[in-house]
Structure to design on (557 residues):
């Protein structure tokens, strides 16, 4: 059964005000187009969870969509501060809940596997566990020692960008696979965006690469270049220039709002956004091919 | 004045701490350059692991972020974030971790979270990321930073990641893996833990003085009786850094700051 619908329709149907949203992707495959659509549709009071909020949550916070962020590293990767989220937190206007990467990802792992919590070995530093009461320490029933535990994270909706998926949502990812699988399995609803929608036979030709099975997916949206200024391995490069430029834009409220006006509210969808970026950007982000050696599954 | 930047000095001294065959949890910026320099000099079998889930990366260009696609193409393996922290780090498969942080105390504990009160932060820093687990579970931890009183306060505003906690004995009692914070390389010299786990000035970079280091440290810094002078950056080390690794001088041109 085809679940293919336009991204705007998927966001309208599956993202609700007040939702806990997990837009997945560790640096790679960040679904910026979905973030922009959420801003355009004026969703409100969202709790935005991501290990690295990245520019996408900076923009969504600037767009007034968020009540709270849950994160483990709130920086502009490789550049510095994530200015909007940071200044909203410093001004006391944005709630936050914070983990280490392993704590954050263990919460998702618990959510994805149906466990109430996940244990971790104690790291002894202590202060993060003091300020975030969600961290607990319990006795290991076998050794009598202690383990630190975090509860399952169960997003209302996960948004996951992938290289290719079939119309049912069976999805294949390669490159950095971060927490896409975990986010999808942990969430109540899953919106999939894909660079390409392919025939089921393509998926079946390489089943080991399927991270997300179609039966947990609610919507499949064909969104080429969805990840820009993040990237899609093998499709286009990360726009490091924009990550640097955002550092300037986001240091100034007028410039930030002007950016949203021009690049989010001012375009109707990702197609128009990509067109507007223009030839220079397209060329700068295009990459040469470097395919893997073929694997042979054998005919049985 | 010597003919190299403080960034080059930090990077070269970090590279010298690495051993052939080390499995290193790498950060971007200077640690990434240090690992690549070590691979091209004395440690050809160094294995670079990135917290984005990349094992055995051979980056063809300088990655700006820790999740750059150049880390993936040609790597030995790629795994999920849960796997990198669980199977690799927590399991004890990482030899060396490079740390960063806004504040470091005398026992090598790190603050990467907040300046001021946590609930009402004066400066909200990015937070732990992988730092908390790297500090606890990598076998040897190193940190590169410019030397200033602000960086080395008497007391941390927040303890994000464990060095020796209140001293070596406390770290041992906490059952953490490995040796803890084994060297802090600054633009003035190198500090290493003494028997109690307290950082002590053990080496001065050429041109720096112990007084200068003391003045820029927020606690009463101990100085080793056998204070060494760091071997200056070698021509070959500088050539590899400038010509091969960072030809545009993105990380190395400036002084570390």
């Amino acid at each position: 059964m085809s679940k293919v619908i336009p991204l705007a329709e998927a966001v309208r149907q599956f993202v609700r005000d007040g939702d806990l949203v997990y837009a997945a992707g560790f640096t790679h495959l960040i679904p910026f187009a979905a973030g922009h659509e959420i801003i355009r549709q004026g969703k409100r009071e969202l709790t935005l969870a991501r290990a690295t909020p990245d520019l996408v949550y900076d923009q969504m916070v600037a767009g007034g969509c968020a009540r709270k962020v849950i994160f483990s590293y709130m920086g502009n990767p490789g550049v510095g501060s994530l200015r909007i989220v940071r200044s909203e937190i410093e001004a006391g206007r944005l709630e936050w809940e914070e983990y280490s990467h392993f704590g954050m990802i263990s919460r998702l792992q618990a959510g994805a596997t149906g466990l109430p919590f996940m244990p971790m070995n104690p790291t002894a530093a202590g202060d993060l566990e003091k300020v975030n009461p969600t961290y607990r320490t319990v006795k290991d029933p076998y050794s009598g020692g202690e383990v630190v535990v975090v509860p399952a994270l169960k997003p209302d909706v996960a948004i996951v960008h992938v290289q290719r998926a079939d119309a049912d949502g069976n999805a294949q990812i390669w490159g950095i696979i971060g927490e896409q699988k975990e986010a999808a399995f942990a969430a109540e609803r899953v919106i999939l965006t894909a660079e390409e929608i392919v025939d089921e036979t393509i998926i079946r030709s390489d089943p080991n690469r399927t991270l997300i099975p179609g039966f947990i997916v609610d919507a499949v949206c064909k969104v080429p270049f969805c990840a820009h200024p993040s990237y899609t391995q093998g499709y286009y490069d990360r726009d490091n220039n924009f990550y640097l430029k955002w550092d300037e834009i986001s240091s100034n409220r007028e410039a930030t709002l002007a950016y949203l006006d021009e690049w989010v509210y001012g375009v109707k969808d990702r197609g128009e956004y990509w067109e507007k970026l223009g030839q220079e950007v397209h060329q700068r982000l295009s990459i040469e091919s470097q395919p893997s050696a073929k694997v042979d599954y054998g005919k049985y | 004045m010597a003919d190299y930047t403080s960034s080059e000095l930090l990077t070269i001294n970090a590279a010298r701490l690495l051993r052939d065959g080390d499995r290193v949890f790498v950060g971007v910026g200077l640690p990434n350059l240090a690992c690549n320099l070590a691979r091209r000099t004395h440690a050809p079998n160094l294995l670079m692991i990135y917290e984005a889930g990349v094992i055995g990366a051979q980056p063809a260009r300088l990655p700006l972020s820790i999740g750059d696609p150049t880390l993936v193409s040609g790597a030995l393996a790629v795994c999920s974030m849960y796997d990198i922290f669980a199977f690799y780090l927590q399991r004890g498969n990482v030899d060396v971790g490079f740390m960063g942080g806004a504040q470091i105390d005398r026992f090598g504990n790190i603050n990467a979270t907040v300046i001021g009160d946590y609930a009402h932060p004066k400066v909200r820093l990015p937070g732990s990321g992988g730092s908390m687990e790297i500090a606890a579970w990598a076998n040897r931890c190193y940190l590169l930073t410019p030397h200033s009183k602000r960086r080395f306060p008497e007391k941390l505003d927040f303890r994000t990641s464990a060095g020796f906690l209140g001293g070596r004995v406390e770290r041992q009692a906490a059952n953490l893996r490995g040796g803890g914070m084994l060297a802090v390389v600054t633009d003035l010299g190198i500090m290493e833990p003494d028997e109690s786990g307290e950082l002590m000035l053990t080496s001065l970079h050429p041109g720096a003085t112990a007084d200068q280091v003391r003045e820029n440290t927020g606690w009463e810094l101990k100085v080793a009786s056998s204070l060494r002078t760091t071997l200056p950056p070698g021509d070959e080390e500088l050539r590899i850094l400038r010509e091969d690794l960072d030809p545009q001088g993105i990380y190395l041109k400036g002084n570390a700051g």
